[in-house]
Amino acid sequence: MFELASFGILTGFISGFFGVGGGMILIPMLLVSGFVMKEAIAISIMQMVFSSIYGSFLNTRKAKNILKDGLIIGIGGFVGGLQSGFIVSNVSNLTLQYLFIAILIFSIIKIFIAPAENKGETQEKSKLTLFVIGFITGIIAMSIGVGGAVLLTPILVGFLNYDLKAATALGLFFVIFSSVAGFTSLSLNGHMLFTEGAIVGLASLVGVYFGIKVKNMVHSNSYKKYILLLNTIILIVMLYKTL
């Protein structure tokens, strides 16, 4: 229990600071601790429900200008996330781990190329485009136990010209929709670990609070470097665990 609570606090800080659901840091820790991939996914998704709702509440004032797009993307993510229970039931643990690695590589490349601050106008996109982005992100993310921000953030920064910090705030807001859908789908398919997920989720609230506090004090260029560093470390851990 103490180990899971410690994981929750650390994951919550990462979630608040980087605007992610926390799965990309929590899942490797759970795998190293002896959980199998599908168990780690279940715990991760339940933790995201806690951290994303609380983190988005704390981000509200700074995220008001992007919540309109976030709502459309979030609805798409919710619909996509509902498909995750079927995918987890029919795809092997190893395949899910390889998919996770591919998502991390994509994220690192896009964030490395994109500027930390956008000096131009945000690219206007149709509601259908935003919904489809959310839908596809939701399917992939909930099937590998991450909230979707690790995939959504590079899309927002690299293709829709969002500032990095604004994109991470929207990403955490998106996680509310995708994680609730994933939690519902995995629960109905008998994959959810309620006790372990609740312990990690409640502990993560402490970390989320301090993560957002620190994020608001960091310069955008330094923030970009921290995100790249985090993703690279996680990629190394996943490659070590998988290969």
UniProtKB/TrEMBL annotation:
Cross-referenced InterPro entries: TM_pro_TauE-like, TSUP/Inactive_protease-like
One Pfam family hit: TauE
Membrane topology category: Multi-pass membrane protein
Organism ancestry: Bacteria, Pseudomonadati, Campylobacterota, Epsilonproteobacteria, Campylobacterales
Keyword annotations: Cell membrane, Membrane, Transmembrane, Transmembrane helix
Record-stated family: Belongs to the 4-toluene sulfonate uptake permease (TSUP) (TC 2.A.102) family.
TM annotation in the entry: 7-34, 40-58, 70-89, 95-116, 128-160, 166-186, 193-211, 223-240
Domain of life according to the entry: Bacteria
Cell compartments where the protein resides: Cell membrane; Membrane
Transport is among the record's keywords: no
Protein name: Probable membrane transporter protein
UniProt keyword Transcription regulation present: no
